UniProtKB/TrEMBL annotation:
<comment type="similarity">
    <text>Belongs to the ABC transporter superfamily.</text>
</comment>
<dbReference type="GO" id="GO:0005524">
    <property type="term" value="F:ATP binding"/>
</dbReference>
<dbReference type="Pfam" id="PF00005">
    <property type="entry name" value="ABC_tran"/>
</dbReference>
<dbReference type="GO" id="GO:0016887">
    <property type="term" value="F:ATP hydrolysis activity"/>
</dbReference>
<keyword id="KW-0067">ATP-binding</keyword>
<keyword id="KW-0813">Transport</keyword>
<dbReference type="InterPro" id="IPR003593">
    <property type="entry name" value="AAA+_ATPase"/>
</dbReference>
<feature type="domain" description="ABC transporter">
    <location>
        <begin position="10"/>
        <end position="235"/>
    </location>
</feature>
<dbReference type="InterPro" id="IPR027417">
    <property type="entry name" value="P-loop_NTPase"/>
</dbReference>
<dbReference type="InterPro" id="IPR003439">
    <property type="entry name" value="ABC_transporter-like_ATP-bd"/>
</dbReference>
<protein>
    <submittedName>
        <fullName>ABC transporter ATP-binding protein</fullName>
    </submittedName>
</protein>
<keyword id="KW-0547">Nucleotide-binding</keyword>
Amino acid sequence: MSHEDSVPVLRAEGLTKRYGRRVALNGVDLTIPAGRVVGLVGPNGAGKSTLLNLACGLLEPTSGSLRVLGSRPAESAAHLARVGFVAQDTPVYPSFSVADHLRLGARLNPSWDQELAERRIAQVGLNPGQKAGRLSGGQRAQLAMTIAAAKRPELLIFDEPAAALDPLARRGFLENLVEFVAELGASAVLSSHLLSDIERVCDHLIVLCAAQVQVAGKVQDLLAAHHRLVAPRGELDRLPAGVEVVRMENNGQYSRALVRTDVPPPSIPYRVEPVTLEELVLGYMSRAFAAGEGTR
């Protein structure tokens, strides 16, 4: 069975999570196919951590449904073993040595791969006898990722794991993430507000903003479907059918519009330019914020 035909790693339908009166996720519909490295991007407070904690079974939804690898999150010990999770602060036990962490991982996980764990620890230069409390942020992140990957999970989930790392440590972490995904044949979801991280390693994108998914899909397909149109001011107010305006800017004599289109660009009678991933993400986030302001 190919990845395209297999069970989605995550499927949400009407997924809603409230904390008292605050709505963290509001009726989210989302399907993540297997075999992808997925970037989950959005501003702080957008609901990214809530979605990932729901996927790991650490939270229960207020309403709606969520399936991870075809089952309810954390419905059994066997299902827990199929998901590896690295939380935002890459938690480790300060008084445990690196080797203690590997021993604990082996005790708790039936499919534990000690050879993989020891090889990766050596590769990133961690001393097995070193106490975790004395490791740098980058080293703690590498240890936490190694423990998650040595479970040999089908899905790896990373919640802003590299946010606090310096650029060099972050690059090393992301390179190892890609290597783990390839070695395990796993899928991965990486949440980040650093778009450069997403661009470096992800082939699938989810933009989460204002408690809802604004756009999702393969990065390649999304970039192919979005364009920047440039025309004399006011002319972009009358666009052909099949062209959806995501964001419009009027600047001097010209209008610029980020559009999603079903029709080929040559049939659009204006200057058509490609867009970057950053422009695409910021366009959808700006639209979500503008809609939120308009409903207050």
